[in-house]
User: Fold Nudix hydrolase domain-containing protein from Vitis vinifera.
Amino acid sequence: MRCFRAFRASTIRAESNPDAPSSSSASSSASVQSTGSTLKINFCQWCGGPTKHDIPEGEEKIRAICTLCGKITYQNPKMVVGCLIAHENKVLLCQRKIQPSYGRWTLPAGYLEIGESAAEGAIRETWEEAGADVEVQSPFAQLDIPLIGQTYIIFLGKLKKPHFSPGPESLDCRLFALDDIPFDSLAFSSMLVTLKLYIEDVKSTGRPKFHYGTINKRPGTSPSDIQSYTLDFHLQS
Assistant:
């Protein structure tokens, strides 16, 4: 069994909302209003009827319950998957061509699709954003962001061929030496955490570990505010 060493990060930073809080059960018939880490759903996604917000029998949380058909809308976190690709002691980053964080740098990553595994999704996102054909080697980090209902799973990846080019959602793709990574121009603090953990591993032990942690953000931070968060319940193997 793997041995995990837990500690609480001493520095305070903040994970910004890379996308609006998301619900896996949202649809075109659902009207939503933000209420912090969840969405207030006003209409049923099945029949379009108005909802009431109450605690269903046998449950503990307030849910949106349709007043017409009685169905309950459950909100679940979204999974973001991507690859950290090291090639010749450099890391592949993409410059975003879309909002939020247009023009900022990120690892190739995006939402997992129905019908694919996390590794398959990471490979697909890397191809779509960086035009890179990669082989997944091992998981590197799982970072939970409860405030916005997202979980990041980042894999270590290897280029099958030393070729990459910007996809439709990227302005540019580049390999950065570890000391040249543009930390002041990263898109999200999840990327900041991932890259800093990777650099710490490589410089201290020469090899990446596996990391789990929870990024707790200050409510109301903007997507461009990536420097103020706490990395809590940090486990590493």
Remarks:
- The helical segments are 118-130, 189-205.
- The first strand starts at residue 5 and ends at 7.
- Residues 78-236 form a domain with the Nucleoside Triphosphate Pyrophosphohydrolase fold (CATH 3.90.79.10).
